């Protein structure tokens, strides 16, 4: 037999290279390569060595380990706090993607098994993603994306799987640290690591990575992702009107503790990390093409950005016209250049011109100075049928907000998996954000909620939630539809939502406003990312967000902060700049609130005429069965006919929610008719009456003692001394009159107690006919019978 020829199959090529010499073999004459053997001993020479570090965060210990799970991934880390564990993997392709941006996908998944539960859907398996998973994925993405090298356009995927949850420690921050560790351990080019902590504020005391119980009483929920040299990479916060000085202290505390996590990851990567791979191609425009584009187009671009008469559409059209001219000249000058290099060269020049005007001339493309707001106008009570409505216009950003009330039963219910993981059972306040394509003069499919819309709506909801009264008797839904967009539509949603809530008469504790702060820096990647100069911009336009280095959104009342989200596009900001941004946003926020107060300064004293109403009804036990009806028939009927919602509070109290006052009026009439007093004919305990059969059922007959009475059930057990299975055995028919004895009402449920069986004995001799209100006495009456 001929010696086998060594062959490395394409599918295993990348793995075999890393495995340290494993080979596939095939024999002559065999068409398809066959994997005969792979020498893959589980040793440190062929696999990652298992290792881990422990980071001491005060009274809590964070454990980060790698090398045992998912070893085919480029990088994998397991982060544990208490008994909660999250596994994060990172994989990046070795061939570049044709996209013109960093193709990073982050998916965070909460598995039911981690919470010791089984999914409730019909397949009993995980399906789709929840809003909480999407929002957590966005936080992770914003924490790691800025640290990828410029021009690294290789498909990269980060998957975060929740392995176990103890119900005490929230796993979202663990996933951020896991993503940082997985990237740091891998051979993927990345300028990390980063470290993330959650900061809570309970009874005036700041807590790092608080437990779920501590978070339930915390007035602050701040997540800080810090980079090396105490820089800030990402921030997101929800707060209950926390003062600025307390918030700033929490940020500094979070950055301080993030450095300990970074040191732990650096130690782990030094001991067990892989050597970073060499990038085949960096997608950047060649310097000579950029220089030529600069000489040809920079003055034209400068003229457009210096013309303050332009609005969003005309400015974009003017720049696009220059782009087409420049790209045509570049293609003629550099015929061998790649299309991406041509397009990127113009983008680099355009961005540099825009930033230099801000840095050197202290001007913005719409003529404002660095700290001025755009023109703001707002109005309320736009449509009379709505419970509350408002429109908020800031420059060319326009948002329409509406408020809708409904019963508490219509609150958003969480499935038991989400409840087990986050502790949130239901929400009686929600804000939904919609961004249709016409808001930016585009055409697109209306395919429902996307990740961006969910994230913007969640931020505006965080901003408004602290001012909503906790004991409000309705479920509140605020919808925010962006009609025009030119920057900061999420903060416009917070402003418009606040106006709409006051228009609806919701007794919010204070007016809420939000603003976005931008940043333009003179950034030097060659000098370890040192920021040599910078300008902070108040109330940024869309183009300032696109060409800038930060989108810092902050909302709150005139006294404190309720929500914050910082999207930082460079590998980190020093604390000094972040503190200045908070101060600048605070000044702008108060100015916006003053403008809003001129339209409506406080909630309406009463809700509008067509707003829903809630009433409570006291139903005695003796009438409860009539009110509810057989099998809940009356409750279902009243809800179907009038649109009200009836819910039981206690044994004798029912709450009635009506969408309109007229519906409540109809419901009252229905209830009065159903629960009218059956004692118009004073029934005597122990007396015998003539009853008319109105319906025959399997379990008995329905009878009336007088024409206007609600039929009551005479059970089979009370029809005869003999045991019968159906009333037809006694020859009973509808319309037939029978004698029954009255034993009052059941004290627990108010049911009328009747018996025909007892009349089969000679004891009862009093018969009363109530059809004509005349009593006929036959024989003698025995009061005791």
TrEMBL record:
The keyword DNA-binding does not apply. GO terms for cellular component: cytosol; mitochondrial intermembrane space; mitochondrial matrix; mitochondrion. It is a peripheral membrane protein. GO terms for biological process: mitochondrial mRNA catabolic process; mitochondrial RNA 3'-end processing; mRNA processing. Keywords: Acetylation, Cytoplasm, Exonuclease, Hydrolase, Membrane, Mitochondrion, mRNA processing, Nuclease, Nucleotidyltransferase, Phosphoprotein, RNA-binding, Transferase, Transit peptide, Transport. GO terms for molecular function: 3'-5'-RNA exonuclease activity; polyribonucleotide nucleotidyltransferase activity; RNA binding. Homotrimer; in free form. Homooligomer. Component of the mitochondrial degradosome (mtEXO) complex which is a heteropentamer containing 2 copies of SUPV3L1 and 3 copies of PNPT1. As part of the mitochondrial degradosome complex, interacts with GRSF1 in an RNA-dependent manner; the interaction enhances the activity of the complex. Interacts with TCL1A; the interaction has no effect on PNPT1 exonuclease activity. This is Polyribonucleotide nucleotidyltransferase 1, mitochondrial. It comes from Xenopus laevis. The gene is pnpt1.S.
